Amino acid sequence: MQKSCQVLATQFGLVLAFNTQMHSLDVEISASYFEALCGMFGSCNNNASDDFMLPSGDMVIKVVNL
After folding, report:
1. To the nearest 10°, the Cα dihedral for 5, 8, 9, 12?
2. Residue 10's closest CA among 28, 31, 23, 33?
3. Residue 57 above 80 pLDDT?
4. 3-class DSSP state of 48
5. Which Pfam families has this protein been placed in (predicted)?
6. CA separation (Å) from 41 to 13, 16, 21, 25?
7. CA atoms within 13 A on the CB side of 60
């Protein structure tokens, strides 16, 4: 039986799990980063309305622009 998931876990609380059969990537980050993130994974503050905001404060219309 072949392993279908490759996992990378860091000391700073990031876990990446790549499913090689489904070609999907799961990303987990430590709760210590709450309200400290931005970019393609959102702001991590439980407010979906600002997940596509650039560091300048402008909102991105298309995700491709991130």
Report:
1. -150
2. 28
3. yes
4. helix
5. VWD (PF00094)
6. 15, 13, 23, 12
7. 16
Query: Is this structure's pTM higher than 0.70?
Result: no
Q: Do the Cβ atoms of 28 and 15 come closer than 8 Å? A: yes
Q: Are 33 and 44 in contact (CB under 8 A)?
A: yes
Kindly provide the b/e burial profile for residues 31-66, where b requires at least 16 CB atoms within 10 angstroms of the residue's own CB: eeeeeeebeeeebbeeeeeebbbeeeeeeeeeeeee
Residues 6+ apart with CB under 8 A from 13: 29, 30, 32, 33
